[in-house]
Specification:
Blueprint: E1 2-10, E2 13-22, E3 25-26, H1 30-39, H2 67-77, E4 78-79, E5 84-89, E6 95-101, E7 104-106, H3 111-114, E8 126-127, H4 139-149, E9 153-160
Helix pairs in contact: 1-2, 2-4
Length: 171
């Protein structure tokens, strides 16, 4: 079993934790998992995200805008600790994300480039930390993980921390 947690903070205090518990996929099934991720990419995963540089592209290119959460989902779905998050600036000046294991590239959304006769920016890629404080998984990534897992998902729970209040001192 594998557990992925996403904490929410009030300052430095954790006030909520979302926990996914699931049976991860073995590394030798990574291409199968990439296909499952691709099959589960839908426009609703892009709602609420920061604005895309080319929003009209989502109307014609199924993979545009999905590279970050697809890569992060793949990272968590595979039982393997050698996958490295990578990013590079593409031909339009936009950041693209994928995973690497040594020289082997795993890119769930590379078709967004081949669709327009371009190449992904692997040649300028660098090891890159996940966005966000403490590199926590994004909610969109967790939703994509759930879609891909199906019956492999054992639980999705949210725990809210107890708030202890001190009664006021009366004078």
């Amino acid at each position: 079993m594998k557990t992925v947690e996403r904490n929410r903070y009030d300052g430095k205090r954790i006030f909520e934790t979302r926990t996914l518990t699931f049976e991860p996929y073995p590394y030798d099934e990574i291409e199968f998992v990439i296909k499952k991720i691709q099959d589960n990419l839908t426009p609703d995963l892009l709602k609420g995200r920061k604005s895309l540089m080319y929003p009209s592209d989502v109307l014609t290119n199924k993979y545009y805008g999905h590279c970050y959460h697809s890569s992060q989902a793949l990272y968590y779905l595979i039982e393997y600790d050698k996958l490295t998050p990578m990013s590079g600036e593409d031909y339009r000046g936009e950041k693209h994300w994928w995973l690497q294991d040594g020289d082997k590239i795993y890119d769930c959304t590379s078709q967004q480039y081949t669709f327009v006769n371009q190449s992904p920016p692997y040649d300028v890629g660098k090891k890159t930390n996940w966005y966000g404080w403490k590199q926590r998984p994004q909610q969109i990534s967790l939703e994509l993980v759930k879609r891909v897992l199906g019956s492999r998902l054992k639980s999705d729970s949210v725990t809210v921390a107890e708030v202890h209040t001190i009664p006021p001192i009366e004078f």
